[in-house]
Amino acid sequence: MIETAGKNNLLDIQLEKTSSLLKIMQAKETSMKEECIILHTMIKGLQQTVQYQHNLKGENEQLKRNVDFMKEKLKSNEQEYKNNIAKLISEMKIKEEEHKTEMSKLYQDMQRKVELNEEKHKELMARKEVEISELNAKLRTQEKEKQNEILRLHLEFDTKLARAQTKSKSYPDTTILPQSIYRRKLQHLQEEKSKEIASLQNTIRDLEQRLAACKDNRLTRRRF
Fold first, then answer.
1. Are 132 and 207 in contact (CB under 8 A)?
2. Cα–Cα distance between 167 and 160 in angstroms, integer?
3. Contact (Cβ atoms closer than 8 angstroms) between residue 149 and residue 189
4. From residue 205, how far is each of 8, 183, 196 by CA, in Å?
5. What number of CA atoms fall less than 13 Å from residue 37's CA on the CB side?
6. pLDDT tens-digit profile of 150-169?
């Protein structure tokens, strides 16, 4: 974007210089027109003088030569003005074409960059969606494993509790300690599994938020 701004500034400076040159030429045109008016007035005056002093042949011839000289000078000035205006118009057209070409190139470059960024965002969102899908599958698997493990421990606990209760018929106070140990082990396992599932859920939530932010940014760029 800095390079683009620099090029635009350079083109603006060149157009400003061309505009300044046009103003100078217009000022010259005004000056030449005023000079032409003066020359026309002088010619008219000289012609009147020639007509008035026609009996003075020598002076009359000189006045005629002066009139001819001024006419030639007027023609020369008019032609020079026309040539300068034509040259200036040609230069302005060339600058305008160069500016159009440069702006078209800059637009194409920016369009390619936007399209490239669009592709990158699409790939990123696709990867994030796959990652979220995999994590969801992993979460479901872990939840299933957790339920199976809890069920297995319950069965194991019930089996050992039944054995302990069978033995406790001879030793009534021996069942309290094993029951407490099994309950603590079961509770600890449930807490660990819950932490793992919560961590996975947080990861999935974070990825979904990032994916939504990427989509929002993409829509914002499209609007502009």
1. yes
2. 10
3. yes
4. 45, 33, 14
5. 5
6. 777 777 766 766 766 676 55
Q: Is the dihedral of CA 107, 108, 109, 115 positive or negative?
A: positive
Residue 164 CB contacts under 8 Å (≥ 6 apart), including other chains: 174, 175, 178, 179
What gap in Å lies between CA 52 and CA 60, rounded to an integer? 9
The answer to whether 179 and 164 have CB atoms below 8 angstroms apart is yes
Which amino acid, residue 168?
A: S
Domain boundary assignment for the chain = 2-115, 123-223
Whole-prediction pTM value?
0.36
Contact 209, 119 (CB under 8 A): no
Which two tokens mark 62?
């000189």
How far apart are the C-alpha atoms of 34 and 31, rounded to whole Å?
5
Query: ∠116-118-120 over CA atoms, to 5°?
Result: 70
DSSP one-letter string for 57-71: HHHHHHHHHHHHHHH
Q: Is residue 85 pLDDT above 70, yes or no?
A: yes
d(CA 193, CA 149): 10
